[in-house]
Write a structure and sequence with these properties.
By secondary structure, the chain is α/β, with parallel strands linked by helices. It has one domain: Glycosidases (TIM Barrel, Alpha-Beta Barrel). The chain contains 14 helices and ten strands. It has an eight-stranded parallel β-barrel, surrounded by four helices. Helix 13 links the parallel strand 9 (266-275) and strand 10 (307-312). Helix 11 runs parallel beside helix 12 (250-262), helix 12 packs parallel to helix 13 and helix 13 runs parallel beside helix 14.
Length: 365
């Protein structure tokens, strides 16, 4: 007999069913497999030293990731702390690990203002000699050509409030002027003729004045590079989400992706994580807030054309670069696995979004 109560319960169950089905599916699929379902990839920033000594982390990385991103090992200051003394031990180990396990590496990163060795800053300022850049690119790009098919050539070139063109006032700009970005991409293409070359940038997701300006200046930079036929293949969107910044500007995110895609460029979401704002909430509440923010972002981002993959900036809260307020005990909870290497709600949000969201189609739990 169908009663009003039974009917209401049936409707409620039917409404919950798609969410429950997707969650059950996500629980039995890896992030790599969820991404591959729509011909994308999933990956994570890693440190080879941690992979060597932490069995649970290594197993999760091998299970969940296709792309591995050296978190710090490829920084110029790490590779060549002293002029002429290049150290590739850690990178070689990571390359071997990737090759032996059928993984790929994304080159992170070639030119970044925060990873220039002190001696290079001095020499670039004094001599303005491009051969320093060419020599460094030539020493590192060909060495890893068999496992690296994506290179972040220039990282974080935008910094508003200083110049009319929105470029960051860094040592490369000081030494070579605004054309350093085009020159770097052209130089990288010489050594990596078949790899995908990227520019990587952050702060493009929220509705505040600073991020509106960053989107504007970044688009203008991309337009200038395209007009010059500079070898640029894709845009890296870091996607460091931040719960203290208010709601995501989903309309602006979609518009930004469409404008970039209209230039013939594809995307990689390169450094996805979530910075928390409410550390007094329960762990369950904190995890849900982070997962909801990631799902809101991926619902929009993955619905756009040309998104080739997603990488998180770390796989486990155990090694997050983010810190909490310095007073509250514990770790920032903003990655797919918690400190005990158990999947968090963010894991399921990513898996569901990768599996179910594609261009022209948005699905929500």
């Amino acid at each position: 007999m169908v009663t009003r109560r039974n009917a209401i319960a049936s409707v409620a169950a039917a409404a919950l069913l798609p969410s429950l089905v997707r969650r059950a599916r996500a629980a039995h699929v890896t992030l790599e497999a969820a991404a591959a379902h729509r011909e994308r990839f999933f990956g994570s920033a890693v440190r080879i030293g941690q992979l060597k000594v932490e069995d649970d982390l290594r197993e999760a990385v091998l299970r969940e990731c296709l792309y591995l991103v050296p978190e710090i090992e490829m920084d110029w200051a790490q590779v060549e702390a002293t002029y002429g003394e290049l150290t590739f031990d850690k990178l070689d180990d990571l390359a071997s690990f990737a090759g032996e396990n059928g993984k790929r590496i994304r080159g992170h990163t070639l030119l970044w203002h925060l990873s220039v060795p002190d001696w290079a800053v001095s020499m670039l300022r004094e001599n303005r000699d491009w051969m320093l850049i060419a020599r460094y690119f030539g020493s590192i790009i060909p060495r890893y050509g068999d496992v690296i098919n994506q290179w972040e050539v220039v990282n974080e070139p935008i910094d508003i409030g200083h110049r009319a063109d929105g470029l960051r006032d860094n040592i490369f700009l000081e030494a070579f002027g605004p054309d350093y970005i085009a020159r770097a991409l052209q130089q990288a293409r010489i050594f990596a003729p078949h790899a995908q070359l990227l520019i990587n940038e952050y702060g493009l997701e929220y509705a505040n004045a600073e991020e509106r300006a960053r989107r504007y200046y970044f688009l203008k930079l991309l337009e200038r590079l395209r007009k010059k036929n500079v070898p640029l293949d894709a845009v890296g969107v870091q996607a460091h989400l931040d719960l203290s910044k208010g709601p995501l500007d989903t309309r602006a995110i979609a518009s930004f992706f469409r404008e970039v895609a209209g230039m013939g460029l594809s995307f990689v979401i390169t450094e996805l994580d979530v910075k928390e704002a409410d550390f007094a909430a329960t762990d369950e509440q904190r995890d849900r807030l982070a997962a909801d923010e990631v799902r809101r972002y991926l619902d929009v981002a993955l619905a756009q054309w040309g998104v080739k993959g997603v990488t998180t900036w770390g796989l486990s809260d155990r090694h997050s670069w983010l810190t909490i307020d310095g007073k509250t005990p514990g770790l920032n909870r903003g990655l797919p696995f918690d400190a005990s290497m158990q999947p968090t709600p963010m894991f399921y949000a990513i898996a569901d979004a990768l599996w179910s969201t594609g261009p022209g189609r948005q699905m929500r739990s």
